[in-house]
Design goal:
546 residues, Rossmann fold, 6-stranded mixed β-sheet, 17% strand, globular
Length: 546
Amino acid sequence: MKNGVYKFTILLSLMTFAQGAFAQGAGQSGSNILMYTVIGVVVLIILGLVLSVGDSLLSVEAKETGADQTGANTSIFPNWNEIRKPKTAAYAKGQKVHHLKAGHDILLVGGAEETTQEGGVSRFAVQPQNFLGMSPIPKVIVEVGDTVAAGDELFFDKKRPEIKHTSPVSGEVIEINRGEKRSIASIVILADKEQKYRNFDTPDLLTASREDVVQFLLESGAWTLIRQRPFNVTPSHEDVPRDIFISTFDSAPNAPDNNYVVRGNEQAFQRGLDALAKLTPGKIYLGLNAKAAEAPARAFTDAVGVEKHYFYGKHPAGNVGVQIHHIRPMAPADKVWTLGVQEVITLGNLFLTGQFDQTRMVALTGEQFAAPKYVRTKLGANIGELTKGNLTTDEGIRLVSGDVLSGHATTQEGYLNYFDDQLTVLEEGDDYEMFGWILPIAPRPTTSNTFPNFLYPDYKFEPTTNTHGEKRAFVVTGEYEEVLPMDIYPQALFKAILVNDFERMEGLGAYELVEEDVALCEFTCTSKQPLQQILREGLEVMREQG
């Protein structure tokens, strides 16, 4: 879609050149020169029209044959990135590099230092609402007071009883908390000091069939580590993905450094990739960072059995959805699976040891932490115990499970969400700011030129939760396209969702997106619209329609 503007620019350039030739000819004496100039103008215009029509026909043919899904340029005209590419780091030379123009990096204080604290948490919880599409009241097979080992089943979805959800730790079930309409909010386990694991018979990846691997993942509970696009749900065991995508870097504000996380886990990461290769007839794609000062970890660059693609650009370049879009875009009927680096490591350790060890490296980030660092813990760790003794204040702050753009607010009584490996703390922005943007005083992260942020691109901001305005008319601004490096018209898509136009939602590419992909659009939104919530509502409508 956006490429059409580029093609129009080339056509306009041809016409401008022709008009210049005409003007030059008109200033000379002699009717022959004028005649030849007019003929030249007509020929150039016809040539431009023929090229434009031919390019459109090629585009139609590429869609019909599926050639546009390969990520290759199927146009007559070269892409701008093919004409002038930005400088690429030396380690990415000769690699497949995708240069993304749209995006915005938000630099914040309080990034986690490469220091790891071991343990320190005794309570863990599994929260059914972390798994999209699950019935609100799953079948719980444990009771308060029961003793479980790590890897023992806690509950299953009544719609899909074959998918088991297991305990991240061994210990005693101390709470089964309920939410609205008797839904299960969380199952809390008090962990043993010495962890006990359930042992599983691991299939041999060299000889095992796909069915054997699937059954093993279902039985152990590791199936829940996988998410499927569209909709970002746990896949059915009957689904076969077209491809599997893994992003090896996270470009969100103060996100964990996966190069640090993967240290010492190189063997487990590769074994996880080997296991995933059994699950798809297609390819496993790794997205690597081409913008960092240092090369990606050897675990990523030396990984075998995968196709590697480097990405150079600002956030959301690290989002797996953006990488899917640029490597091999999804068609409406396609299903692809995604995992994070830590999910792959967990999967690999399961095949290496026969134990479902749900260890996580969690980044504690934010300037309200006395020591922003990493904590090695288990899935679903208690927030209060993660932050104990490390917060500079307990008042006027907000705790977020995840990053500041797409995370979810929590409390010290809450638990880390299943797929989150970051805990963020930031100041509550509940104070009134006199004159607002009319009298900009304190620097703040923004894409607006009201603040001269472009003068200090490396400045790290101290964020608050203040939205600097209230929800207002949903106007067309062009802001979303500046930060979303995908060939999608997000403003039209959101409006289609608001009016519940199912066909337009599908046609505008809603199935390619999840909340994290539009989080930056929400950050830049002048209208202060809850875009992530709007998108999820649209995705649920599409999922219910089948």
